[in-house]
Write a structure and sequence with these properties.
By secondary structure, this protein is of the alpha+beta class. It is 43% helix and 22% strand. It folds into 2 domains: 82 residues; 113 residues, Immunoglobulins (Immunoglobulin-like), CATH 2.60.40.10. Helix 1 runs antiparallel to helix 2.
Amino acid sequence: MVALSLFLYRTCSFYIATGPSICVCCHRTFTSSDSKMSHVSSYAGPTPALQKHHTLLEFRLFCGLQRITIVFLILCSLLNESLSVRFEVSSAELVSVTVGSDVVLPCRLTPEMNAENMEIRWFKSKFKPCVHLYYNGKDDYTDQMPEFTERTELIKENITRGVLLLKIHKVTVQDSGEYHCFAGSSEHHESAIVELLIETETIENGPPEKPSFSQHIIIVSFLLIVAIVLIVSTVLFLKKIYCVKWRKNARQPQPYHISCEGLEICPLKGI
């Protein structure tokens, strides 16, 4: 497309440079043939009015061709831009993790596309040295920050779908901060930012977790069993006391009194 545009531009320039001579030659030829017919002995050259007309016509043709060339160049640039691969890089805003554990920082391309041949660079505040670099289809550790040596891994399981996950092993407090996910090709590049928050043990042991529903059932069942055992024990204890009292009263002798009416011996009541 660019070559065709240059060809049109050079054609316009050549036409401007050689146009008058061509027109003059054409006019001379026509005049010569016409002179033979009209028996004119010599050619006096084009008139000033005819030369002015030719010059104006050539200028209009040149302006028209130049406009066509400019429009063609604009269309070529727009077409080239539309054909180039465009994408966006997105990530989560915040990822939190405890000290000493592993973390995976998310990053993906939109729309989904194969990123195997792209440059994928994870870095913090500076582009170089970086946290992790994937270039020319493999991991490159030459420009890696010393504190991340043998602690980073680019998960390539879904890299053909534009998923660019970075795994950091055994995170420390110094690993907290913003991480940039950069993806670039020969035609386009974009980046996204994700913040990593490192939680200490004090924060981890903050408010206690609420018991789950199953834990509630276990606690209620235990309390119910304890209540039943206490009730049964109390009933048995009271029953035993009553039996002891009753046996004690049954063993004691009852006093008697003599009835005056029938001379019967009856036990005294209320004694």
